[in-house]
């Protein structure tokens, strides 16, 4: 389990359009929002990523970078970026499922072709949303067992405003006896 204020796992993946995303050298002022998504087969992910695309500039104004990540390969990830008409949202691909598990993501098995006619991969990770501080410590995290009921990006932007204004620390850091 990831613990707030402690270092997250490393995350180094290829980026659409070339280059590499490396969380350890991201260099943002206040952190990075990492949106792990199920893949091209998921219509809910497409809608969710459209919402993130609309908020990339809001996060950037606050010193936060954004990236969408899945275990899909380059072609499927490119198709998702085109589907949501991504302009500012970066996409990383080929997430190893072993790394997904390090981040606490749930893994699902294929149920075949989805409602939008796209085959699910044999194995893929379920959604997760994280905000990682510049020192690569966990600030915020949310994981789901299903594609439904995800955090709203507008609320995360508002929470970020509050956290910045009040120097609000990451919470949930206690690991002692209860």
Characterise the protein shown here.
It is a single chain. The chain is of the alpha/beta class and 178 residues long. The protein has one domain: Glutaredoxin (3-Layer(aba) Sandwich). The chain has 4 helices and 9 strands; from the N terminus they run E-E-E-H-E-H-E-H-E-E-E-E-H. A hairpin with a 5-residue loop joins strand 1 and strand 2. The mean pLDDT is 97.
Percent range of helical residues? 25-40%
CATH domain topology: Glutaredoxin
CATH class annotation = Alpha Beta
Strand tally: 9
CATH superfamily: Glutaredoxin
* Main pleated sheet: 5 strands, mixed
State the end-to-end distance.
17 Å
Q: What percent strand?
A: 15-25%
Report mean pLDDT, rounded to a whole number.
Answer: 97
User: Which residues form runs of ≥5 with pLDDT under 50?
Assistant: none
Tell me the Rg in angstroms.
16 Å
Quaternary structure type: single chain
Q: How many structural domains in the coordinates?
A: 1
Shape, principal axes of CA atoms: globular
Run of helices and strands? EEEHEHEHEEEEH
Number of helices: 4
Major sheet: order of its strands? Answer: 5-4-3-8-9
Structural class: alpha/beta
CATH structural architecture = 3-Layer(aba) Sandwich
